[in-house]
Amino acid sequence: MTLPIKKACGLTAALLASVALASAASAQGFDWMAHKGETITFLANNNPVATAILKYKDDFEKKTGITLKVDSYQEQQMRQRLLTVLNAHSDEVDVFMTLPSREGRQFAAAGWYQDLKPYTGDQTVSPDYDFGGLGKALVDAAVFDGTLTGIPLNIEGPLLYYRTDLFEKCGVDAPKSIEDIQKAAEKIKGCSDASNVTPFASRGLKPALPYTFSNFLHNEGGEYMKDGKSALCSDAGKKALSTYANLLKDYGPPGVVNYSFYQLTSLYRAGRAAMSFQSSNEFPSVMEGGERLKDTGIMPLPAGAGGSHPTTIGWAMAVSKYSAHPETAWYFVQWATSPKMQAKLALEGIAPPRAAAAEDADYKAWLAEEPVRQKWQEALQTLASDGTSEVGYPIVQNPESREYIGQAVDDILLGTADVDQACANADQQLNALIERE
Question: Which stretch is the leader sequence (predicted)?
Fold first, then answer.
């Protein structure tokens, strides 16, 4: 079952109100220097969110007197390191970034998260923190069995970035449907003005591609599970698998099975992709250097047979259950997710999970400087209002489920199986996974 962002439920309004009242009552006792001289370790994923936060590392240390040790890795390496540390019940990591939509259920079931709910309502809350100002749906998405596993850092989802100059030169209209993407890619492939350009690029790396594939699945009217079983072999599921895999096979870059966000961003920023379906979170990196500022259009994935259901998720900042300094770690979490910091991060292109940050005068001025920024913000508003957070199967073993989804796509892409065999193989493995729940 998908979880619509606009309809997500969990933490009640009463809880949010009580937290706000408790925070106000305790504000006078708060001291940013309460943990001066202590050291905490942040295991960082070197994506744009962490990169933007760490630009202000010195500000945090000056404000709190806390030393922040940073261990930063590419996303897959970060996940491997995190699993090693948490499985060992080690206190080597105090704070880490987490995707509730991916590993939230699994990590919560293992007891690896520190429950942050108690920290949001006592004397460890800054008077200007405003916990209630965080997007409720994103907060709820981080709650599992009553445990608040993380605090939202951003709101994001995959968007279609496309080269308006190449579309014009090749006589291609902006796509209004998934079918139009295929037609545009075919026309661009045969266009002399785009002879050295990849027509369409998206994630092909097995564990990473469900993030982008899920949008195709939902837009084609598919779902991952029905009546307690895997539904990847439904008509809509097979159509989504075929469409996504064939777009990458026929119009994607060489070696696309190794592509995740880093490769996609580099390709598009260098002007070597006409269309790139990738994270909204990559917007600042895509625009780095300014070469794509004037020739880029941005939109959510166009509708398919099932309508428009954009994937919408967000990173959260979590504290390890095994941290030796959870109170100190919470100071970093609330600093990184505070209204002031999220307003700063918005100017770095990190979409804020706080409505107040989106209304900030400086942010509005930043958007107005470039039309492409406004297109990005408009697309994000669609994600916020219409999105679903289902990426992979809604089970404890969600991360493993993504491997089988990715394998099905890659089998079709590489020609090692047709769509019927690929989805049948995936369904067999996925149903075994579901039965273990």
Answer: 1-22
